[in-house]
Amino acid sequence: MLVGSDLTISTLAGASNNVVNISGGQLTVTNGTLTVNGAGNNGSAQLNISGGTVMVQQLITTNAGGVINFNGGTIISQGTTVSNGLDFAIGNTGGAATFIANGGTHTFQKNLIVGSSSSGNTLLITNGATVFNTTGYIGNSNGANNNAVTVTGANSVWKNSSNLYVGYTNNTGNTLTIATGGTVIDTAGYIGL
Fold first, then answer.
1. pLDDT tens, residue by residue, 94-144
2. Nearest residue to 101 via CA among 80, 84, 72
3. Element (H or E) spanning 106, and its range?
4. Helices (H) and strands (E) in the chain, counts
5. Distance, CA of 168 to chain centre
6. Rounded to two decimals, what is the model's pTM?
7. Are the CB atoms for 92 and 125 separated by under 8 Å?
């Protein structure tokens, strides 16, 4: 599906329980914003990604009624705002999810988790992208193995306002790679906990 401008899941106040499921193929929003719940506090919407590719200029969900379940496939975004009061997981229960922050600013209100209860998930911060979040986790729980974050390229930054954990609870093979001018910032870092 190719959308030339904006795509909004639940647009007007009161619009609720609207869902987009992507398990294969490609959704591209070329010149606008993909908004998950534009209906505000009186609405609700879900974007469920388990496969395929989502390419967006901007990805936004800014209230509790908007939920993004990212359990597989790929998101390529030039800018992201997630301020729905929830952690954002790249690979919550499904594995092999990839998020590419391709330039721009990506702001996550809460924690950013690469591999919550699953393995083989990836975050790539590149082309001068800046990613902001509270605590960062690469592999969060038992069985969350072989997850990876790469920060590469001049002015590419991952800024954790709190701690960063590479391997949090009894997991293995999780990696952080900083390359070619990339920067990672955190209050305290833990490699294997």
1. 889 999 999 999 999 999 999 999 999 999 999 999 999 999 999 998 889
2. 80
3. strand 105-108
4. 0, 19
5. 18
6. 0.96
7. no
